[in-house]
Write a structure and sequence with these properties.
This protein is mostly helical. Helices cover 73% and strands 11% of the residues. It has one domain (4-122): Orthogonal Bundle (Arc Repressor Mutant, subunit A).
C-alpha cells in the first residue's frame, strides 16, 4: 500500500466532514434559527426520554459540563427542556425534552435527515453502505486500541 493513501484518506475525511458540518450549521441557522450544538443536545435527550443528569449529557456529547450548561439554560428558557432535581440528591440536575421540545426536535430531525440524504444522494447505495461499514470498522479498531492501551496502563500501574 502506498503510504500516502492513508494520509490522503484522513485529509479527505476531515475536509468532507467539515464541509457537511458547515452546511448543516448554515441550514439550522437559516431554517430553525438554531445551532448544531443545540440540535445535538436535543438529539441526545430524545434518545433518553427519561432524561439525563447533566454529567451524563456532557459525557454523551463528549463536551464539558460548562458547554452543555449554557445550551441547556437557553433551551429551558424557551420551554424546550425541563430541568429537575434528582430524587435523593437535590444538587444533581436531570434534564429532559419537554413536550414542546419533543415536537420541535421531531421537526428538526426530519429536516436533518432530508438534508443529509440530499447532500449524499449522489453516492450509489452500494458505495454508501461500503463507506459506512468501512468507517465503522475503523471506529471499532480505534476503540479497541484505546481499550487495550487503558488495560495495559492498569497493569503497569498495578490496578
Amino acid at each position: 500500500m502506498d503510504k500516502k493513501n492513508p494520509i490522503r484518506l484522513w485529509l479527505r475525511l476531515l475536509k468532507t466532514s467539515r464541509l457537511i458540518e458547515a452546511e448543516m450549521r448554515e441550514r439550522f441557522a437559516t431554517n430553525f434559527n438554531t445551532t448544531l450544538p443545540r440540535f445535538d443536545v436535543m438529539a441526545a435527550l430524545s434518545q433518553n426520554p427519561e432524561g439525563l443528569k447533566m454529567s451524563q449529557l456532557s459525557g454523551a456529547l463528549r463536551v464539558s459540563n460548562g458547554n452543555v450548561t449554557g445550551i441547556v439554560d437557553r433551551l429551558c428558557s424557551e420551554g424546550l427542556v425541563d430541568r429537575s432535581s434528582v430524587i435523593g440528591d437535590r444538587r444533581i440536575l436531570k434534564v429532559a425534552l419537554s413536550e414542546k421540545g419533543r415536537l420541535e426536535f421531531s421537526r428538526q430531525a426530519n429536516a436533518h435527515k432530508e438534508w443529509i440524504n440530499e447532500l449524499l444522494e449522489h453516492l450509489p447505495e452500494n458505495e454508501t453502505i461500503y463507506l459506512s461499514e468501512s468507517l465503522e470498522g475503523i471506529s471499532q479498531q480505534l476503540l479497541k486500541n484505546k481499550s487495550d492501551k487503558q488495560e495495559k496502563l492498569k497493569v503497569v500501574k498495578g490496578e
